[in-house]
Amino acid sequence: MLHPPQTVSIGFVHGILSGVHARGQPLEPFLVEAGIAPGLLGQSDARVTTQQYARLFRVLTERLDDDFIGLLSRPLRRGSFALIARSALGAPTLQVALRRAARTFRLLQDDVVLELVCRAELAGVVVRFTEPSATPTVFLQEVLLRTAWRLMAWIVGGQLPVVRFDFAFGPPAHAGGYGKIFPAPQQFDCELSAFWFDAARLKDVVRRDEAALHVFLADAQAHMIVPRRTDEGIGARVRSHLQHAQPAWPDLVATAAALHVTVSTLQRRLALEGTSFQALKDELRRDTAIQRLSTSTVPLAELADELGFANSSAFQRAFKCWTGSAPGSYRRSGGL
Predict the structure, then answer these.
(1) How far is residue 288's CA from residue 290's CA, in Å, rounded to a whole number?
(2) How far is residue 150's CA from residue 181's CA, in Å, rounded to a whole number?
(3) Which of 56, 163, 173, 260 is deepest in the core (most CB within 10 A)?
(4) Does one domain contain both 156 and 85?
(5) Structural domain includes residue 313
(6) Angle (deg, nearest 10), helices 233-245 and 277-295
(7) How far does Cα 21 stand from its chain's mean position?
(8) Averaged confidence pLDDT in the chain
(9) pLDDT tens, 256-311?
(10) What is the span of the domain harbouring residue 309?
């Protein structure tokens, strides 16, 4: 299956680097090794590919020898995450797996406790910091929630729908990208960061073994931090159709016909998912352009044609609107 390219906001890149930045270490070597242009850090609307994003996390864990990339008061040596995951494998249910993983995590560091809380029909994994006066970074809370959720979802077979994400901070500048990282209703300025799910799922059977863990760990960063694009919903069908139709880039009418729905039905169903045909089309063209600029030396005129623009000037105007910078500058920053 051909998957559309994805990108993430530069705000998440700043987050990944926050531990290194707080220690006064230079950021450029890590970015260069991950294939990310250091100049993009200064562009608030810039984006990087999900491959670059996951690669940066991997580079940081390897160079720092720290599975939590400098975010905690002392390093979690490489292999710590594998130990946490392995501690949950032999559990009979999700509830026991959660408690075992949380206990192992607590043994490895002093800063944070993951607590399982039950309220009526909901179960929650709550992030509680041991030093009340400490102000943990936004990214540390983001990565703790995302990692705990995705690990437990994987443990029980891949799916653990979240009812709500709570964040103990206000909406960050990159909150517009939260929908893909945290695909459920979100509440900010909460007392504690947490994710909540149906308490009945605590009885789910653990379905993974040591062999499955070995495969999972081979690309753990992508599993944990890269947004998972759902294959469900009308938006996913539109993205898939546009991806397969390239470089034709069909319009709304042609796409509705290809999906065997009326134009009004397609528009209404996309609106229910919080998007529109033009937004999906522009998102795909933006992400394709960033990926091509990051990985090739394709001429801008040729890329404009691939993306369905009338000419290079029209493409460059659109790209600047999407990312805040011209494609030529973006490419030069990347050293291509």
Answers:
(1) 6
(2) 11
(3) 56
(4) yes
(5) yes
(6) 50
(7) 21
(8) 89
(9) 999 999 999 999 999 888 889 999 999 899 989 988 888 788 899 999 998 999 89
(10) 233-333
Q: Residues 309-334, buried b or exposed e (16+ Cβ, 10 A)?
A: beebeebbebbeebbbbebebbbebb
Element (H, E) at 9: strand 7-9
Same domain? 219 vs 245:
no
Contacts for 57 with CB less than 8 Å, ≥ 6 apart: 16, 69, 221, 225
Please give the structure tokens belonging to residue 18.
Answer: 């926050």
Residues 219 and 246 both lie in one domain: no
Same domain, 64 and 92: yes
Q: Indicate the pLDDT class of residue 231, thresholds 50, 70 and 90.
A: low
Determine, yes or no, domain membership for 300.
yes
Q: Provide DSSP, 71-86.
A: -SSS---TTHHHHHHH
Q: How far apart are CA 219 and CA 215, in angstroms?
A: 8
Minimal CA–CA distance to 192: which of 148, 141, 147? 141
Q: Out of 209, 225, 241, pick the residue that ends a domain.
A: 225
Calculate the alpha carbon distances from 336 to 198, 302, 329 in Å: 48, 16, 10
How many residues can be counted in the chain?
336
Select from 225, 242, 257 the last residue of a domain. 225
C-alpha 82/C-alpha 86 separation (Å) is 6
Q: Tokens standing for 64? A: 């720092």
b/e 29-48 (16+ beta carbons within 10 angstroms → b): ebbeebbbbbbbbebeebbb
82 CB burial (10 A radius; 0-12, 13-18, 19+): middle
CA–CA gap between residue 172 and residue 312 (Å, rounded): 34
Number of domains in the chain: 2
CATH number of the domain at 323, please: 1.10.10.60
Answer yes or no: do 126 and 269 share one domain: no
Is residue 289 situated within a structural domain?
Answer: yes
